[in-house]
Specification:
about 100 residues
């Protein structure tokens, strides 16, 4: 097998580091700045995934001790809402339930 098909990178560097060096200004877009934004978003996406797993574990713990996770999720959603918005939603729900004979 020949080494002609193998990409030549200086010792200690990989493709990603090499592409950082290749980042340049193209059509008014600064390559290094764009790379920095992309890197930040990728790190945040990784953190978001890790947090989602942590949240899933907390719901699992709550369920294991007998709490209804669907209700917990609803309470969390309601706590995020503005008090007036929450009251309006409750009133509409009651009105609609009454209109269809549920109460």
């Amino acid at each position: 097998m020949t080494d002609n098909n193998v990409a030549a990178f200086p010792a200690g560097e990989d493709k990603e580091n090499s592409s950082e060096e290749q980042a340049k200004d193209v059509g008014g877009v600064t390559g290094q700045r764009l790379r920095a934004f992309i890197d930040r978003v990728e790190r945040l996406e990784e953190e978001k995934t890790a947090l989602a797993e942590d949240i899933k574990e907390v719901y699992g713990e709550a369920k294991a001790v007998g709490f209804d996770t669907k209700t917990i999720r609803k309470i969390i959603r309601l706590r995020k809402m503005d008090i007036d918005k929450r009251r309006e939603e409750d009133e509409l729900l009651e009105l609609y339930k009454s209109a269809i004979g549920m109460e």
